[in-house]
Design goal:
The complex is a heterodimer. Helices cover 20% and strands 37% of the residues of chain A. By secondary structure, chain A is an alpha+beta fold. The chains are: A alpha+beta, B mainly alpha.
């Protein structure tokens, strides 16, 4: 099993969700995060204080999946989250040792 | 520290030099300008003698004031009766001014601090409202408005003694007058909170406000608005319609001293401390704007043409200053902002406060224009120069705005409205008032803070400041 983590622009979350649903993925965890890579931040001004804000809002999506579905998922996310501008995000794939469905106690592939 | 001393020195220089000048200048020859017509035992009489179509929200209403010399002055020597129109308006004004503090100022300040301190900031305003009410009732009103010395009143009206259902102050019940003035005594200390936001101990703040109200607010109020007050009886009399010196310069200077004495917030200058919710700030500023009609027009103590004109000048100055700050910031920094325009409106309101019943609409435009720009500077360039962490710009907006307004009043007072000539001799009186308020206010505030700090610490510990005052002082939070 693998854990696919994707960090995408917030307004792309709906597109990614639909793309994944179209290929049969029905379980996603989303977290609002802040981050930056090469994308520039912005400045904010409050009376005499000016702040440089580097961290930009992003959404982190986590999908647990079987090994054989990983590539399809990566393609689905890449296509739907892509805008061509700096800041589109990243996808990480890590190994997932165990998965358990809390309600039924199922483990392994039947839990994800 | 050095900067406090510089500020004090400047204030004292103002005071001394204007006093010197005053000696050289011949008293203005407009009759009755400064001499009270019938300085009856002001507050103690049940039905004071003269009417109170007053300019400077005088006190005990038994005296003529510069405003009354306006062509249509109605100084009837006969005992005035209760005027229900005036009374109705004053009842409404009192409510409007109270609304300025709760929740106007609470929201204005609350939105500007970090979320972890929003409850504590609002708690300060709300608690001060309650505390000042009691203090004013017990002894504050008496010290401010009864006959005593030129520097402080007496104790005749302790616990509002002698104020019965039928007791009048001019044409309105004295109960209404006393509570109207109470709302001023409430908002002035609440303004100071902006200077020490996000770091002052609640208990120390309570002690500070109690002492400050009695030792600074009451005396200065007495100087300016009591019939035996020394600024009221200056030649020419000081023009402070609704509290430019009494409220704004007073609070601003006290705020600056507090900011110096308490020191900067942890992380100031390095960490980001943006306002957590400017929606609250805008709502608060709006309430301040509308409520200010009670503050200024209510200071006419009557429902008449003076009140109407004061309302007009208030509105005009607020709007002009809002645009003035907005454009100044837009020009200097590249974009207009919500915090900027709301701050601008407030600074215009502050600046028109001493002038509202004395200038005409054209004067109000000028005051608004100047105040917007100078207060913007007060909250930015001047703030950097002074080097104190006056968190919410109590001095930059209220101190500078009040001073600007007070001085411009001397230059823009309309003889047709106020019966007073604008010019250098009036400006000198205005400067004297500003200087005296700055000097006395700064010194007394400093002493009070030093004493409190010796006994109980002014600031919360650093860890508590990091955690946030909502949790550390009040064990409450906003999700």
């Amino acid at each position: 099993m693998k854990l696919v983590t994707a960090i995408v622009k917030p307004f792309k979350v709906d597109d990614v969700r639909h793309a994944l649903a179209a290929m049969g993925v029905h379980g996603i965890t989303a977290t609002e995060v802040k981050g930056f890579g090469r994308q520039k931040g912005h400045t904010e001004l409050y009376r005499g204080s000016e702040y440089v804000v580097d961290f930009l809002p992003k959404v982190k999506l986590e999908i647990a999946t079987d090994d054989d579905a990983v590539e399809a998922i990566i393609n689905a996310i890449s296509t739907s989250a892509h805008t061509g501008k700096i800041g589109d995000g990243k996808i990480f794939v890590t190994s997932l040792d165990m998965a358990i469905r809390i309600r039924t106690g199922e483990t392994g592939s039947s839990a994800i | 520290m050095k900067k406090i001393l510089v500020a004090l020195a400047l204030g004292s220089v103002f005071l001394c030099s204007t006093a010197l000048y005053a000696d050289d200048v011949a008293p203005v020859s407009v009759p009755d300008l400064t001499a009270p017509v019938a300085a009856v035992d002001d507050v103690v009489a049940d039905t004071p003698v003269t009417t109170t179509v007053v300019t400077t929200t005088t006190t005990t209403t038994t005296t003529t004031t510069p405003a009354e010399l306006a062509p249509a002055a109605t100084t009837a020597p006969a005992e005035p009766a209760l005027d229900s129109g005036n009374t109705a308006w004053m009842l409404a004004s009192t409510a409007l001014v109270l609304l300025m503090t709760i929740p106007g100022l609470a929201l204005f300040y609350g939105g500007m601090v970090r979320k972890k301190n929003v409850l504590a900031t609002m708690m300060q305003t709300f608690t001060i409202t309650a505390l000042m009410t009691v203090l004013w009732t017990v002894v504050g009103y008496s010290l401010a408005f009864t006959k005593g010395t030129p520097f402080i009143g007496g104790l005749d009206r302790m616990f509002l003694n002698g104020i019965g259902v039928n007791t009048l102050s001019g044409t309105i019940p004295e109960s209404v007058f006393a509570i109207f003035q109470m709302t001023f005594a409430i908002i002035t200390p609440a303004l100071i909170c902006g200077a020490f936001a996000e770091r002052m101990k609640f208990s120390s703040m309570l002690v500070f406000m109690t002492l400050w109200s009695l030792l600074v607010y009451a005396p200065i109020t007495h100087w300016v608005w009591a019939s035996d007050g020394w600024l009221f009886n200056y030649h020419p009399a000081i023009l402070d319609y609704a509290g430019g010196t009494v409220v704004h310069i007073n609070a601003g200077v006290a705020g600056l001293v507090c900011a110096f004495m308490l020191g900067k917030r942890v992380g100031y200058g390095r960490e980001a401390m943006p306002p957590h919710n400017l929606v609250l700030t805008l709502i608060g500023a709006s309430m301040l704007w509308v409520g200010w009609f009670g503050f200024n027009a209510g200071s006419a103590l009557a429902a008449d043409g003076r009140a109407g004109m004061a309302m007009a000048t208030t509105q005009i100055a607020a709007a002009t200053a809002a645009l003035s700050w907005m454009f100044a910031e837009w020009f200097k920094k590249g974009s207009p902002s919500v915090l900027g325009i709301t701050s601008g409106a407030v600074s215009g309101l502050v600046a028109i406060t001493p002038a509202a019943g004395f200038v005409d609409p054209k004067g109000a435009l000028i005051i608004g224009l100047v105040a917007g720009v100078l207060c913007y500077w007060g909250a930015t360039g001047l703030k950097r120069f002074l080097g104190a962490d006056d968190s919410l710009d109590a001095f930059g907006v209220h101190g500078i705005g009040g001073a600007v307004g007070a001085i411009l009043t001397g230059l823009l007072v309309s003889p047709a409205i106020a019966g007073v000539e604008p010019g250098m001799s009036q400006v000198i009186t205005q400067l004297t008032g500003v200087g005296a308020t700055v000097a006395y206010g700064a010194v007394m505030t400093f002493i009070i803070l030093v004493v409190i700090d010796l006994v109980m610490d002014l600031r919360v510990p650093e860890d508590d400041e990091r955690l946030g005052l909502d949790l550390s002082l009040h064990r409450e939070r906003v999700e």
